[in-house]
Specification:
Radius of gyration: 18 Å
Shape: globular
Number of strands: 0
Strand content: under 5%
Number of helices: 6
Order of helices and strands: HHHHHH
Helix content: 55-70%
């Protein structure tokens, strides 16, 4: 049925990511940003096998992020993939280091000045 097809696609995508991580390891550094955000979505998959493959792949790719920083994008990436990599990279940077989260301006007039930890909390909630 349709649900089986969708489950099969998610399982296949997680299996491909797992195989790439296993077979290529650090060679995936230039591509890790493109893989991490979709894997995050699969880490809450209702199918335990998909969740497990995605979680293990994610855990293997996160340490590659520092290797990807400062390197140019692989020349075979399309303009759309480069843009997605930039956006996903900024998201991951903020997720892993909340000091990278931009200050959120309250959408209403507040007669008080937020303390730094309060502003950080508001920033984090807005980011999420």
């Amino acid at each position: 049925g349709e649900a089986d097809t969708a489950t099969g696609k998610r399982r296949g995508a997680a299996a491909v990511a797992s195989a790439l991580v296993t077979d290529l390891g650090p060679a995936l550094a230039p591509y890790c940003v493109l893989m991490l955000v979709p894997l995050m979505g699969r880490m809450s998959d209702p199918v335990p096998a998909v969740r497990e493959m995605a979680t293990k792949s994610f855990a293997s790719l996160v340490p590659l992020l520092p290797l990807a920083r400062g390197r140019g994008y692989p020349p075979e990436l399309s303009a759309e993939q480069v843009k997605r990599s930039e956006n996903d990279g900024a998201f991951l940077e903020a997720l892993l280091d909340n000091s990278k989260v931009e200050d959120f301006e309250l959408p209403f007039k507040c007669n008080r000045v937020l303390r730094p930890y309060q502003q950080e909390g508001v920033n984090w909630l807005a980011f999420l």
